[in-house]
Amino acid sequence: MFFLKNMPSPSSVFSAYASLSASFLLFQTMFNQFLPNKAQQFILSAFQYYLSPQLSSNVTLIIEENINGLARNELFEASETYLFTKVTSASAEKLKVSKGSRDQNFTTRFAQCEQIFDSFGGMELKWRFHCQESQKDWKSEDDRASERHYWFELSFHKEHRDKVVLESYLGFILSRAKALKNEKKVVKLYTLAQCSTYGVAKWDSINFEHPSNFNTLAMDTDMKRDIIEDLDRFVRRKEFYKKVGKAWKRGYLLYGPPGTGKSSLIAAMANYLKFDVYDLQLSDLNSDSYLRKVLLATTNRSILVIEDIDCSVDLTTNTQFQCAAGGHGELQLTLSSLLNFIDGLWSSCGDERIIIFTTNHKDRLDPALLRPGRMDMHIHMSYCSFQGFKLLASNYLDINNHHGLFGQIEGLMDNTEVTPAEVAEELMKSEDAEIALSGVVNFLKRKKMEANSTADTKEEKSSAIDVVEAKRMKLEDVMRNSGRKIGRRVVRRKCRQR
Ligand SMILES: Nc1ncnc2c1ncn2[C@@H]1O[C@H](COP(=O)(O)OP(=O)(O)OP(=O)(O)O)[C@@H](O)[C@H]1O
Ligand SMILES: [Mg+2]
Fold first, then answer.
1. Under a CB-based contact definition with an 8 Å cutoff, are residues 352 and 385 in contact?
2. Nearest-ligand number for the alpha carbon of 390
3. What pTM does this model have?
4. Is 424 in the pocket of ligand 1 (CB under 6 A)?
5. What number does the ligand 1 atom closest to the CA of 392 have?
């Protein structure tokens, strides 16, 4: 009875509800219309803070997309890359996907407020992605535009603040993101643009799709290991280079006969490091100043390649390049300028630069290129060994164990100069291992015969030369003696005349 007596009537409940809803709507409209976005954000987060007491023991870091609205925030980009590895396995409600015409992969980005949980070294971390659209000021209707702001909030317990999060977790995110980006990176091949107007250096690029890698490369196993270790050491020693005051660059000279894998090694290095390749033809240049511009237009984490350096340089003058760029007047491109620029200014303007020269004739190179400290590693790409052949057989024909013809091939390869390119060509001739290997055997036999006959001809030639030489010497002797006799006769005659 008491209850019934004190219960409000349904009409009063309804009118109270109606007036409450109206007030709420009025408040919401005022809140949205009259308060700026930032103020709304502030009030909401203050409410959140007081309504959830458990957060008071937490710290929240804000990671904005841009620094002071200008430069890209490296940590934001890294967080985005890293968090995608967490999101794809969990459930993201909305993602943005795009693909540029030259991209190989899709690019995915967060599209809306997302919450992601992570754990690291025993601590729990909560990420929240925020996206906010704000209207820009505009002068006319046509200028109407909206701007989007993105940021991450990272929350975790206060006790982890300095030591764990700021020191190790964020560092871990940066390095993980770098590795992830590197995995996805498409290596580019740059060549000098044909029509660079007004001396402006411009490089054209295409995707570098050379399939060579260290597993497909037939070369001395120890040397291959040394090169890989050298590359690894180079990329991880940023601080070392800074400490010793050296530019962060590395130079390799690859030399050896045609078809021994110099270009394939360059491709393997580029694919291994995911470094872009700049293929520089010195004959496209006509002056030192243009060369400088061209080199300065290259980017970090790249390999500058100058193939067949012995053919580009006129070694008789030691300095002037034989440039084919006709119609440009006197050419002023010097080897010393190239080397000095590479050693000095160019490498100090960038990081993680590699330069590779190749040649078929190391003995013809200018000593300036060979002097100690110029090229850090001289790599000799040599003829194919039996070990190299086995690797090629495994790659081309999937023969991973012994084959009946291997013994014969090993014997024939002994003391026969055959390039990996020649072996590869034979192995490509048939998918049937038996046929392809028989082709190799026949090829090696031919090579051996040719080598022997060349040696015989050489021997014959040299013995013929010996005979001619002996005859010449004999003749000279005779001439000298008869000359002396004639001389004596002339002297005697002169004496008699006197
Ligand atoms: N060491 C090797 N390992 C695997 N394949 C090789 C090797 N050397 C050559 N080849 C094969 O031969 C082809 C030609 O080799 P590459 O162009 O690398 O030789 P190169 O030494 O650069 O020759 P050049 O001096 O004429 O420029 C390669 O595409 C590859 O198929
Ligand atoms: Mg080559």
1. no
2. 1
3. 0.67
4. yes
5. 4
